[in-house]
Amino acid sequence: MNANASAQYKAVQRSADTDVVTRHADLVRRIAHHLGARLPASVEVDDLIQAGMIGLLEASRSYDSEQGASFETYASIRIRGAMIDEVRKLDWAPRSVHRRSRLAASTVRQIEQRTGRAAIPTEVAAAMDISLPEYMRLLEDAARGQVLSLESQVDDHGEPSTRRGGGPSPESVLQRSEFRESLVAAIGLLPEREQLVVSLYYEQELNLKEIGAVLGVSESRVCQIHGQAMLRLRGRLDVFESADAGLDQED
Questions:
Q1: pLDDT digits (tens, 9 = 90+) for 138-148
Q2: What are phi and psi of 218, to 5 degrees?
Q3: pLDDT tens digits for range 163-202
Q4: pTM of the predicted structure, to 2 decimals
Q5: Are 43 and 36 in contact (CB under 8 A)?
Q6: C-alpha dist (Å) from residue 246 to 47, 78, 91, 105, 192
Q7: DSSP label at 37?
Q8: pLDDT band for position 157 (cuts 50, 70, 90)
């Protein structure tokens, strides 16, 4: 391609990119604000939007309409994935939080395997040799990181392996389907109140304050219930191991 043709191509590409951003900027902002509501205040929504715009442009260049999904559906996955990758890079949660969270999940799993029932906070705290208030603080500290890990794993399963046109391969679709089935089954085994919180949070997309109003409890208490549910899921599913592997190597 000569210099003239190259310049013309770049001009056309810039125009196409501008058009895509103009038409779908609201989608990026909606996803950023929805995801941002689940993260600490230290995570700037503007940073999520910037990452999402990059994901949007990548989606526009790899989208293949023959794969069946609408562009908005396909772009939403890529936009959200780009935002989650950005938050992963920031790694706002201290390594100590990751370590204590892994220990708590392991403890919950051991108690439930031994007793055949859902572990309760007092026995988990006792097994970890910490006070109940300290364990409840651990749940709150770890809750948001667990949410991010769970959501990113749901998005990741099946996404990396794609065909040339940008659509997921049959193997990836199967893997993603199997993972979702395992996750749904694990959620179905949670205690009733934890199931309700998870349902309101993920399916109804209520925030913690709104869920607290529904249940008649504080936002902090909802965060604890949510955190306990995430620890149970972590203990029952190997959905967080890849995210933690890098942290283990750094420790």
A1: 888 767 655 55
A2: -75, 160
A3: 434 444 555 555 556 666 777 888 888 999 999 998 888 7
A4: 0.61
A5: yes
A6: 23, 23, 11, 18, 34
A7: T
A8: very low
**Other residues' Cβ atoms within 10 Å of the Cβ of residue 5:** 9
H or E segment and range at residue 13 = helix 3-36
144, 149, 152, 156: CA torsion to nearest 10: 180
Strand (E) or helix (H) holding 52: helix 45-62
- Tens of pLDDT along 108-155? 999 999 999 999 999 999 999 999 999 998 888 767 655 555 555 555
> Exposed, middle or buried: residue 73 (CB in 10 Å: 0-12, 13-18, 19+)?
exposed
Asked whether 241 and 235 are in contact (CB, 8 A), the reply is no
In the structure encoding, which two tokens stand for residue 112, read together? 């439930």
Tokens matching residue 207: 């925030």
Q: Tokens in use for 142? A: 């770890």
How far is Cα 16 from Cα 139, in angstroms, rounded to an integer? Answer: 46
| Whole-angstrom distance, CA of residue 201 vs CA of residue 221 | 14
Most confident listed range (29-33, 200-204, 246-250): 29-33
Tokens linked to 152: 């990113």
Q: Do 185 and 217 touch, CB atoms closer than 8 A?
A: no
| Rounded Cα–Cα distance for residues 24 and 29 (Å) | 9
Q: How far apart are CA 221 and CA 27, in angstroms?
A: 32
